[in-house]
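Inputs:
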Amino acid sequence: MSTTAPTDDRTSSGAPGPTGLARGLGLVSLALGIPAVAAPEDVARAVGASGDADSSSAARAMGLRELAAAAGLLTRSRSTPVWLWARVAGDAMDLVLLGRTLRTGTGPRGRTLAATAAVVGIGAVDLVAARRSGRAAATAAAGPRAGRPSEPGDLELTAAVTVRRTPQELYDFWRGLERLPSFMHHLQSVEWLDPARTRWTASAPVKGTVTWDAELVEDVPGEVVAWRSLPGADVDNSGSVRFTPAPGDRGTEVRVHLRYSVPGGRAGALVARLLGEEPHQQVEDDLRRFKQVMETGGVVRSDGTPEGTSARRHLLQHPGQPVAST
Amino acid sequence: MGRNSVEVVEVPDPTILDDRDAVVRVTSTAICGSDLHLYDGYVPEMKRGDVLGHEFMGEVVETGKGVGNLQVGDRVVVPFPIACGGCTQCRNGMTSICENSNPNAGMAEKLWGRATSGIFGYSHLTGGYAGGQAEFVRVPFADVGPMKVPSHLSDEQVLFLTDIFPTGYMGAELCDITEGDTIAVWGAGPGRPVRRRERLPARRPPRHRHRPLRLPARRRARQHARRDAQLRAGRRARRPAGDDRRTRSGRRHRRRRARGPPRQRAAALLRPGQAGHAGRDRARRGLRQAILACRNGGIVSVVGVYGGLMDKFPIGSLMNRSITLRGGQTHVHRYQHQLLERIEQGQIDPSFIITHRASLAEAPEMYETFKNKRDDCLKVVLTP
């Protein structure tokens, strides 16, 4: 295809970079982690534990955990909420250990109590930071174009291709939505329910098929078609395709924008990917086939890929010899 | 089947999958030097059971509804790239980079950024199409590719219109040859040279650019060229004898009958893997050498088979000395008609490069013979 410019806009990863608070907590982790790893006996004694082999190895383990959290918070901006929640869990673990020290410890109880108070305080800060960061991620995920609050696992995809046809010809083909399955291979059918509504049936990796009803939300001849699923859809989704004349009489630039919630959320997306349903690749393949249909009259098939361009086929090519006729 | 192993086996007969398909009964097919890359295992995405062969011709035995230009019984040669004829590249005559004919374009894009056209029998990176070293072949876009050939020409005379004749021609054409230029050719196989162009002052009376060259004349030209090469040898990087061939300006013939040992050496330049890794590197070395040897402002044109990457690329030499580098898989469709005309007019008979003829059943031995250059093997033609 002459132009393919997919852009990943995975909404669930749209969390903001480390906020000041998260960075601060990362530094706290660093400050606690280094001494606990370097001199675990001293740290153990400082919180009122005995400083024997058991307590110092516990302190070293806690130190390593802190260093991991520090690394996560200071570097991995994408997963900041995860690391903040990890800190909350670590605080809980610390409290359990300190409680045990209070009951059985031989050292000065005052130190242990002070350490416990400190952990409770910082744990509260962790909890606030974690909750706040989770909300920020959800807000960012909604994005400027989404018509409803998005959930983690929503996917936005764009892809483009240049086709040697006029915008009007391409629009006309696409606007007959029932023809989409001829090049969108995961679609089984699109039927018109009435002049405004369509019923879509698609194959899905796990469930077999999914169906939904959709309505046209934008329809400008020769320029754009946009659709959106109606409430009650198996897969909540929306999409648009725009046709703009390419410069220098090069045909038409076709830009597709899709958003849908992946069934099963992120886990579902991962499973789909493992099954060869990488969403980007799928949209690119769709556009490649669209170009083939518009420029050559049909989907191009070879002996290795008898059903036409397909990412899944890339892994399991039929040998390059004539396919036995059925 | 695997590295260094081909077999002749029974496979299902091809059928029409698309309205624009035809099925061709193969009457002659050749083993291409590039098939040896597949044989050596240096081309990725080959699968057990792939049918090889992209130089073939034969008789149309079946056509799809959309193939109005061919009829059952027509005798055709089939270009090795598969081209749809409808995309921008095809319309511009660049059929080997057709945008639609490679259904595995996504695979090729991972390696090359963009894909090439589909190619018969040349790995799944170029579409996974069954090839023509077979009795029957499905030819997609048969309304675009196959060219009818007149009955008074023999198979051997026209078979090489499928690949190596246009390939050699394009390699020269990319050099924008003008009067007085000196051309050096690296890798003097039957048709897949790396060419270098040097613009030197004309030292001989100008000749008509398109004047066809017959064999004796070509020999003369080659002798001149060799003498020139010797004269200039002093200021050249050491180069094994036979690595370059020079021809006079404006020569439009593309085939050179290579000779014994020097040719083997030269062929190794473009036949990666023949001597293991060292051999594979020789192709790169040849290209570096061509760039370094090219005159300032000259053109280096690259045809043949290069699959992957190249290190130590002499970009400084290329850029500072205003050298142009061009390349491409051959846009066979663009050349086949004009070259057929030259054959018809008797200007050239490409069959002179054939050294071995065998039946399809003997293909495995022929691959071995060709690979090892036994018996001075230069070009093998198989008849099913």
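Chain B touches chain A through 46 residues (CB under 8 Å). Flag for discussion at group meeting.
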